[in-house]
Amino acid sequence: MPGYAVLDTETTGFSPATGDRVLEVAVVLLDSAGRVETEWETLLNPGRGVGPVHIHGITPAIIERAPRFADIAGYLAHLLSGRLVVGHNVAFDARFLHAEFDAVGMDVPLQANRCLCTQALARDHLPGPQRTLAACCEQAGVDHLDAHSALGDTRATAGLLQYFLRHGPVPAPWRALHDAAARAPWPVAARSTPAPPPAWLGGGELEGMLDLASVMPAPAPARAPEPVRTLTR
Question: Per the database entry, which stretches of residues form a coiled coil (predicted)?
Fold first, then answer.
């Protein structure tokens, strides 16, 4: 049974149709039982203005020499391939990422109706009327640290999914989505294991390009983003 690819993005605005782009993307991979396998994050240079810095905290200096989406597209597709993609208000992230993949010539099965949305699940599993990520985490007793960073929000969303797996029926009612994810037609290249793209340390100045398996503290940046990394637990 396939596992889950929980993701979140930070973007320059609200719609790829008007030229907005992805600034940061993070993925936490869970196995089919909800156990964390790997997490990965990167800042991206969108090739345009960064949008509302007061929300995401990502300044032009931080991403000036960050990779473009084309540089990480193959590896991101590899992470998502064969897994059920999960997000909080996942339609937003799926729309942006589908547009980014399309722009680099990759046809990927990343549409909202193929994904699992923890915001939608909250309507049936959590008591309060608020469905923001922060409110849902509070209701479920899930830690939500470093809000409005892609990795912080992805970890929180993964925690919500783990809560729903623990407190919901078995098998999960989204089993059909799960099975469809295993058969989804990702590009053949995504099924292989591409070399990870270079790690990116933010902070306004390039501090070095590291192997993704490396773990190094980032310098003190405007927002203190964590380094891009892969951590296997």
Answer: none
In total, how many domains does the chain have?
1
- Can you name the residues that pair with 30 across neighbouring β-strands? 4, 36
The two three-digit tokens of residue 150, written as one number: 């892609």
Compute and round to an integer the Cα radius of gyration of the chain: 17
Residue 220 pLDDT more than 50? Answer: no
Burial string for 64-83 (b: 16+ CB within 10 Å, else e) reads eebbebebbbbbbbbbbbbb
pTM higher than 0.90? no
Q: pLDDT digit string (tens) for 72-89?
A: 999 999 999 999 999 999
d(CA 124, CA 74): 36
pLDDT at 208: 33
List the end-to-end C-alpha distance of the chain, in Å, as a whole number. Answer: 20
CATH assignment at residue 109? 3.30.420.10
